[in-house]
């Protein structure tokens, strides 16, 4: 059995379709006899850009908050690097948060 992982990232709504299409093109998000299996939903996020930041949204030194999307999908171990690199290359943020968690079933 292949090792499976859950990949998740946070992104602005306007980047969702572009990132989804890029990941679809890799053939990721497969669960059994289904593909393009992704979940995304609104989350409330906050951050403060520090002195050397070039923020996508907000101003250096000021706390910003916004509604973002959290995108999740299942990925085989062999595809983790391409999934992460694809998200990074299509993501508008200066610092991209990507979490990868081992799964015990799916």
Task: Give structural attributes.
34% strand; Alpha-Beta Plaits; 2 helices; single chain; 106 residues; alpha+beta
Give a description of the structure.
There is one protein chain. This protein has one domain: Alpha-Beta Plaits (2-Layer Sandwich). The longest helix has 11 residues, at 80-90. 14% of the residues are buried. A 4-stranded antiparallel sheet has the order 2-3-1-4, with helices on one face. Helix 1 runs antiparallel to helix 2 (80-90). It has 106 residues and is of the alpha+beta class. It is built from 2 helices and 4 strands. The chain is elongated, with a radius of gyration of 15 Å.
Q: Roughly how much helix do the residues carry, as a percent range?
A: 10-25%
Contiguous runs where pLDDT drops below 50 for at least 5 residues: none
* Terminal residue distance: 11 Å
Rg over alpha carbons = 15 Å
Strand order of the largest sheet: 2-3-1-4
The global form is: elongated
- Write down the overall mean pLDDT: 94
Largest sheet: 4 strands, antiparallel
Number of helices: 2
Could you name the CATH class? Alpha Beta
Give, in order, the helices and strands.
EHEEHE
> Strand tally, please?
4
| Total number of domains | 1
CATH topology: Alpha-Beta Plaits
The CATH architecture term is 2-Layer Sandwich
Report the β-strand fraction as a percent range: 25-35%
Pairing-aware structural class of the strands and helices?
alpha+beta
């Amino acid at each position: 059995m292949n090792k499976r992982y859950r990949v998740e990232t946070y992104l602005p709504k306007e980047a969702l379709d572009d990132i989804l299409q890029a990941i679809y093109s890799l053939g990721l998000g497969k669960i059994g006899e289904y593909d393009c299996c992704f979940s995304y939903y609104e989350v409330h996020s906050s951050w403060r850009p520090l002195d050397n930041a070039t923020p996508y949204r907000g101003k250096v030194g000021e706390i910003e908050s916004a509604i973002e999307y959290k995108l999740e999908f299942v990925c085989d171990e062999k595809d983790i690097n391409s999934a992460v690199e694809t998200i990074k290359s299509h993501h508008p943020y200066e610092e991209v948060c990507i979490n990868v968690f081992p799964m015990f079933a799916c």
